[in-house]
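Anyone up for a design puzzle?
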């Protein structure tokens, strides 16, 4: 199996969260494919030393939230296409596929190469190697499907880029037909908390974070006049909390009350 070097640990943090939830809290997320992959991975890659229940479930909650938006989109638009930007080792296809949707997974070339070794391309999911912030992937998809409605899911991606980089990407996408995008974001205060606590616990204390959203409507205005906010919701609103540690419940409640982390859904 090829080596990933510095990106390796960033891929396995969300994988560890999905496996943890599947084994202990399947009511939050059950990911059979992640459990299957666990047997193929060196145990050191999935070590949870230093992580709390809250940080492990934060990763699982992101996948659970994305699943909900994706399945809702496919109910509304059964002819739609799903695109995952910065897909890493996400296994959404295996949890949410409806039997006929076309999926695309976009990430950097060495990540896609590694993904393909662990997760060979399913029948209707195409892996595209490239820069999520360049236009090659959307041009390729529009060549394949000129008129299909598209939902772009960008989980755990935008935090690490400057706002103007994110805005330029979203503005560019407005020129490619009917597109919705859903992504997770922190508020300014949430970013400070993530830098101080969460990123250290998951082993990325030195990670640079730039992008935050205090107001989805203000961000939409920066992208373009036709952009509509379809949802701006607290991150843990729909996450079941039965059986969780008190400290985890408190952290989730504080995050939601202060809107420190949220899901944002735009129609571009």
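Challenge accepted. My sequence:
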């Amino acid at each position: 199996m090829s080596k990933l070097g510095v990106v390796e640990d960033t891929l396995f943090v969300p994988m560890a969260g999905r496996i943890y939830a599947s084994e202990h809290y399947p009511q939050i997320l059950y990911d059979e494919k992640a459990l299957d992959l666990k047997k193929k991975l060196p145990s050191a890659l999935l070590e949870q030393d230093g992580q709390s229940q809250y940080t492990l479930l934060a990763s699982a909650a992101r996948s659970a939230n994305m699943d909900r938006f994706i399945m809702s989109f496919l109910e509304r638009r059964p002819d739609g296409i799903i695109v995952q930007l910065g897909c890493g080792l996400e296994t959404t296809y295996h949890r949410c596929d409806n039997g006929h949707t076309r999926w695309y997974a976009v990430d950097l070339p060495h990540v896609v190469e590694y993904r393909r070794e662990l997760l060979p391309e399913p029948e209707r999911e195409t892996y595209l190697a490239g820069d999520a912030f360049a236009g090659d992937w959307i041009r390729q998809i529009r060549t394949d499907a000129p008129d299909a409605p598209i939902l772009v899911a960008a989980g755990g991606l935008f935090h690490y880029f400057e706002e103007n980089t994110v805005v330029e990407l979203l503005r560019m996408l407005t020129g490619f037909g009917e597109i919705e995008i859903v992504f997770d974001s922190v508020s300014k205060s949430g970013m400070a908390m993530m830098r101080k606590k969460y990123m250290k616990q998951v082993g990325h204390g030195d990670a640079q974070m730039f992008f935050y959203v205090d107001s989805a409507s203000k961000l939409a205005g920066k992208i373009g006049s036709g952009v509509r906010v379809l949802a701006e919701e607290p991150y843990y609103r729909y996450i079941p909390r039965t059986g969780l540690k008190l400290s985890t419940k408190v952290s989730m409640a504080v995050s939601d009350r202060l809107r420190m982390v949220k899901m944002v859904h735009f129609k571009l």
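A detail worth pointing out: The chain has one domain: 61-267.
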